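Lecture 7, part B: from sequences to assemblies.

Below are the input chains for today's worked example.
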Amino acid sequence: MADSREPPPLFDDDDSRKDDENDDLFTSAVQSPVSEGGSLTPTVEEDVEKPGEQTDPLSDSPPEAAAHSTIQAQPSDSTSSPLFSQSPSLPRADTPPMTSEPVDLFESCSLGGNDSEDVTPTAVGPMTAGQEQEVSLDDNDDTGIFQSTAAPKLQLNQDSFESPVPPASSVLPPMGAPLSPPVVAVVNPSIASSHATASIMPTPVEPTLTTRTQSTTEQNDNEKKDEFIEITVTDPQKIGDGMGAYMAYKVTTKTNISYFRKQHWSVMRRFSDFLGLHSKLVEKHLHSGRIVPPAPQKSAIGTTKIKLGSDKSAESSIEFIEKRRAALERYMNRTAAHPTLRGDPDFREFVELDAELPRATQTSALSSAGVLRLFNRVGETVNKMTFKMDESDQWFEEKTQQIESLDNQLHKLHASLEGLVNYRRELAISTAIFAKSVAVLSSVEEHSALSRALHQLSEAEERIHTIHNAQADADYFHMAETTKDYIALIAAVKDVFHERVKAFQMWQHSQQMLAKKREAKAKAELVAKPDKIQQAQAEVTEWETKVERSQEEFERISKAIKKEIDQFEIIRVKDFKETLVKYLEALMTSQQQIIKVWETFIPEAKAIV
Amino acid sequence: MMDVMEEVLHAETNGTKGGRSDTVDLNDSSLQVDISDALSEREKVKFTVHTKTTLAEYTKPEFSVVRQHEEFIWLHDRFDENEDYAGFIIPPPPPRPDFDASREKLQKLGEGEGSMTKEEFNKMKQELEAEYLATFKKTVAMHEVFLTRLAQHPIFRNDHNFKVFLEYEQDLSVRSKNKKEKVEGLIKNFNKTTDELLLSATQKDVDEYFEKEKGFLLEYHMAIKDSTAKADRMTRCHKNVADSYIKLSSGLSQLGAIEGPRFEKFVNKVSEAFEKGRKVEGRVASDEDLKLSDSLRYYMRDTSAAKDLLYRRLRCLANYEQANKNLDRARAKNKDVHAGCFVQMAELAQQNACEKFEQMSEKAKEELTDFKMRRVAAFKKNLVELAELELKHAKAQVQLQKNCLQSLEEEC
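Predicted structure of the full complex, as structure tokens:
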């Protein structure tokens, strides 16, 4: 069904299109399979725009082009430009627009053979994604990607125009088929570094469904181009006493997004509120294939410490609170970075509502909802282990494997990081003890100059101890926590993959039912009982629709997942790089401090007569 | 591995010979002793003691013999027991070569071989070898310092046992103490300690100086022992940190392999930086060990030897006073001529004791002043070197990290 559809035929090369024009395009676009110049599906619109961009000189348009792609949100130009500058010859990873433009487009934007493949899939993508508001890859990062993609396109434009056509055409037909292979091929390793995720898989889903959403999505995308939202979690306060005590955090939001009432405000929230938000988001979005960032975990020990501890209690509970606060902040920012999730009304309410939120009792472990959830989880785990999906999509197969090995590797890395943190803390402690011991020695020493020098040594070691402690903290907060976050995120990714498997299962199931109903109908026909035949016919029709729908659902979720994963990968890589850089810088700073300490000590040591 | 160690050590010893004997004044070159080579076999370490001398007593001007650790201990015991040397600080004997830690690690490495990647295994093996080498160097250094101190001491160098030790080409057939002797040794030690305690409680020292010194040495000994232990712990922690860098580095490079080209180069660069960083950290740890812990440890032992000196002196004083008492008693008892010989004997005894005591006091004073000077000089040298090395390493680390950051920026 969906397979037979081809991306809407192209639009006219309209160079002057800007992002805003997307809206028009989208609204008018409909997925009309294969009509050259006919109604364009939203995707096509994007494509249209893109080609437009492409014809523009590379330098100015890339950001726009990128922005236009329906899929991505707009990141600031600044983000895109670096991408561009870096890799003018980026393979087009996700040029949805490109794809949708049928031949014309190809002529105008000299796409390399590779690109054309990409183009097609991407064109379809937005369409299918349309159901919900998604296009979500509104992240800034997305824009980046798109921009990179845009870049190549532009480049292509300037290149020869011949090649595009054949590839384009070759791409169009296989729209229905999982376009993973072509897309994969497209991605140039050379450009790989930041654009790995560029390959947007086309989704051969019926365009029709997405039309409406497309337009809105486009609009949203456009709006979000310059959006910015930043959330900080501060001020942990203990509220209440005894067993009813809990920690409340101040959630401060700074944003310029239009659908929020203010630009800068704060609310107080407690930990269970965060968990409640997460479970609501999961309920709503997981089955559409979105990766919902996981919330920090509950910790019985920590909570008890808070409940029972006194006000300015022990270091360990302070540490725990700090860890939790940092984790909550990261969680909020990750969720806010996801364009669809941040538009979710529950999220908005969480961030905006001035009053206390209704207690999310479902998050507590012992509530009925909690027990229900536990059962569900057990059931799902069994399901995961027993059902072996017949994976037709190679992209998914590869990704699943990659995710698995990534998971393992991250676990190992996390373990070695924890080891490092522990050792360093031990080092800090033993240095402090040593410093004290040297101080004693210096007081016993009768030779005055030596005594003085030993005293200085003791002080130097004391300072080094502080430096080591600080370094251990950096080790921990930068590296270990980030790695842990990513392990949790990968678990969320696996959940999303599993949703897809469930959708596939449902599809299979409905196909089986359909077959049964058909048999029943055939039997009824044999017996020639008219009412039975009618009934059987009704059932057959019913199941036929169900099959169609579940297949759509499956394909839709597959497409959404692909997009999500691509975006996720980009963010992940970027995040990790940043973390590593920050960590190295922290290491460097501590070493520089150590240098200062020893430099002050040397003249003292030399002064011993 | 052992043989390789030995060869490397040989090269190293030749290069660093001068550095080792930093607690001894090497001005006098009429008798020069050093350890030119060392071979580690299973449980034993064989040192090649090489002597160069211009003294007439020795048959050849230059010669070498092979000695084992037990023979060093034997030599030390000979000095210790010798009453003539009671007034001197006997240089503390070198500690037994201890490769247990390395051996344990080697075993663990062998067991864990299956669970680590090849690179990780190689890296750990390398680092283990480096550690082994460091321990080896240290033990050779200790033995050498012991010998050099003996050689430089104006009295000790002429000792007959010392000569035998240096010259006798064959095995000294010194077997280490068997059980009985060990138990004897333990009992002797125990007696000595109780005696010491008793004396310090009952015996008053006539000389203010020595009284003060005793107090100082006791306190100092305790403090320095404590510091040595803490310094050791600190060094060990440092090594652990350096070692954990290996795991981090290999974890990162594996991550890079999974991630694929876009991230791999970046991650590999970081991983390399950690690898190099580990080496530097490792060196920081071992330098700390060498300069700080070892000098603390050495002076702890030396202080212990000084304490022993004082103890001996005190014992001598006690004997002297005892002899005085005996004399008085003898005199009191034997007023008539017939008992004159008793008195004479007592007198003689007393005189001996007196002489002995006074000689000892003099020598002891000298030794103690010398000890102080040596200690201050050695500490100064070591502290300065420690600080300079730490500085050098910290700068190297900063450079390393700067380079890495720069290349990462280019990468992005």
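Note for the exam: The longest strand of chain B covers residues 31-41. Keep this in mind when comparing with the next example.
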